[in-house]
Amino acid sequence: MSRIVLLTFGTYGDVAPYVGLAVRLRAAGHEVAVASQAPYEQLITDNGLEYRFLPRDTEQATRESEQAQALIDGGKMRPSREMSKQMVADLGGVGPAMARASEGAELLGCGGPVSALFGYHIAEAVGIPSAALYLQPLAKTGDFAPPVLTLRSFGRLGNRLVWKVGAMGERIYLPQINELRSQLGLKKTTLGAFQSRRDAEWPMLFGYSEHVAPRPGDWGPHRHITGYWWPPTEANFTPPVDLVDFLAAGPPPVFIGFGSTATRRGAELSAMIGEAVAKAGVRVVVQSGWAGLSALDPERGITVGSLPYEWLFPQTAAVVHHAGVGTTAATLRAGVPSVPVPGIMDQPYWSRRLVDLGAAPSYRGRRELDATWLANAIRSAADEPRYAERARELSAALATEDGAEVATKLVEQLLTTA
């Protein structure tokens, strides 16, 4: 039995898959702790895992930042000195907190870009094996450019150049990295030195399916696409009575929710959704989420809070969502078509994948969204059989995979070869 610490940081969707993986690692006989921010402590402890504290509140920070609000719905990033200072400040104290959270670990799993940024150096200092645990294809390739930066392809050489330019973005964190390395007894490093070592040899596990995003042909053997790491099922979940009654009172509704999107435009988006629902003539379940959405017409809709997607989505005709990796996966698992409405980071990438896979009719960014487009997209997704048929085919393919089991075996290989 080994002690494993998983570092996570961000929104619910940046944490929940790692809790699912941690549960599987514990079932394999390991002691597992999950380090995360305070809002996710109960998610972690309710699943019998040890919680370790990390600072900051992503939702609050996003709401309070004018720059974040300008970007969250898909605004173009215009690098500036002010933005760089804010980005660095947003991670103040996170590296040392991750080092404290890693105490006693025999293996460190770095869940997501922030954890990888600091966790790689923490593991080096302690002398233990580690791995990057990513939910997106965030490793250099000539097959496509970085999906969090652009959907354009620039050819194999051009794509690699964009990856190289994108990696330069870590430069603003180099002082924090070197301060942490000094605190841990390591020599200072340069950006090129640690990035080249990390890219060449650091094990990377990707928690999504090759049926959804195929493996690039130029990835090395230290990069593994395992399949999805599903969030743990809520053992004592009881659906709200009013929701059960609503579902039984008519045809399958459309689900609309933007998850952990902490936009201040909730009232505006709710009004647009209400208009689109009326135009489309559908019933709707609206999840409030971080955006504070609501179903404005009680005759057509109901507003809900957090609840298990694996229970609700199979009972819907289509899902309108922000195309975060977790929600995207949940729609495919349920075998229902999507209407992606992306904002930032990897959301446009997963939106494009859903359309290219045939599980969504089209997508449109939230900044360009209007009620007429949304109504038409909802009707296409719900009425045209080919989208539901393709979603069911992908659901069947995902059912053959056990990403957490594959990842557990890979982690155990790291422990035995360390």
Question: What does this molecule look like?
Answer:
The chain is of the alpha/beta class and 418 residues long. The chain folds into 2 domains: 3-56 and 92-228 and 401-417, Glycogen Phosphorylase B (Rossmann fold, 3-Layer(aba) Sandwich), CATH 3.40.50.2000; 241-398, Rossmann fold (3-Layer(aba) Sandwich), CATH 3.40.50. Helix content is 45%, strand content 12%. It has 18 helices and 12 strands. It has helices at 16-27, 41-45, 58-64, 66-72, 81-90, 94-101, 113-126, 155-167, 174-183, 191-201, 241-248, 266-280, 309-312, 325-334, 347-357, 371-383, 385-398, 403-417; strands at 3-7, 31-37, 50-54, 107-111, 130-134, 204-206, 223-225, 254-257, 284-287, 301-304, 318-321, 338-340. The strands form 2 sheets. Strands 3-2-1-4-5-6-7 form a 7-stranded parallel β-sheet, with helices on both faces. The chain is globular. The model has no long low-confidence stretch (mean pLDDT 94).
